[in-house]
Amino acid sequence: MNLAEFHSEAFQQFVLDHLEEDPALLLLKYQGKTAFDLKAAVHQIAARKKADKKLPSWAQDQRLIFPVSLSIEQSSSEETAKFKAGIQAGGTFLDLTGGFGVDSFFIGRKFQKAIYCERNEELAQVASHNFEILGPGKFHVFRGDGVEFLEKSQEQFDLIYADPARRGKGNQKLYKLADCEPDITANWKLMESKASKILLKVSPMLDISQAIQEIPEIQRATVLSVKNEVKEILLEWTKEAESQELSILAVDLGASEQAFGFSPEEESEAKSLFGEAEKYLIEPNAAILKAGGFKIFGERFSLKKLDANSHFYTTEEFPLDIPGRVFEIIQEISPKKAELKKQFPKGNVNVILRNYAQGANEFKKKFGLKDGGEDFLIGTKSPSGFKVFWCRPVKS
């Protein structure tokens, strides 16, 4: 990568002038007509488009350089990086798997010294350039394997962070920690010996219980979602922790941050009260469902559950400050074409089916429905069998 190219006035002006245009069309229109690398300029335009919502402050900074698209897709968002930055502050921070450098930057600026490691030369070059703009002199860049750096380092770190690569041969997705690169399980004792705290970002598809089996020392697992979509799972270990018992935290970064914490023991000992649907249906946040807080959620908010496997809850009284979506039931509705056509003549209704006789796509195709509008059809199993409820969301 020729960084001098990116600093040329013509290159930067071209990117700035064409940010709203189709990158593919720009390649065709300006091929052979520029004194700079057109492909590199068009790539920057495409990358900024991808980063516009995910990394808004970086996308708006014309001085920054963006890497290949996959690195942007796999990087943390600004929201989730800022959340992680609130977990720890201190003297020295080490990122073993720096990548694009988003987490390195947001976490590292809370520390007196921040070290970024990355084996990919181009990514390390991009990150080094961006760090000097965002935090001049703050970040130390090591271009090489983070585990090798750690093995040779004589330092003790307040925080060691890693986001192991989760794609195998043929772009296969990997969900066990031992299958990722680097293998955190094989290097755990090394990390533990040189850190006061370890923070791992792992796949949202990871089975938390499987991760704890692989690394029993983990003390906290945080399921992090943004606007009710699970984005990542964070695993924490602290040397001086008051308790070595596992705690689970489900956090949603929506309009307002919602958090729901529990222990595996609390979930195991909680009792579910089952019943037919009352005035309101409640769907817990996606982070809570991923975290497995099924029984404790109902018990803590005094809710009845429709079925052990439905994960919909109900109450007669409006639930305040609940970490989930609340729907008011208009009526139970018969899943027959004539009835659905009568109630939704244009076919616009949002469909949620869980623990139901068929899937949502099959249901919509069968009855000529498409998601849209304010109304919802929620299908699930209750004590008396499969039911479909016509509902409208209510703001908590």
Automatic annotation (TrEMBL):
Alphabetized UniProt keyword annotations: Methyltransferase, Transferase
Domain named PG-1098 ferredoxin-like: residues: 280-323
Biological processes per GO annotation: methylation
Protein name, entry field: Class I SAM-dependent methyltransferase
Species whose genome carries this gene: Algoriphagus namhaensis
Molecular-function GO terms, alphabetical: methyltransferase activity
Any Pfam family: PG_1098_Fer
Limits of the THUMP-like domain: 324-393
Protein EC: 2.1.1.-
InterPro entries per UniProt: PG_1098_Fer, SAM-dependent_MTases_sf, Thump-like
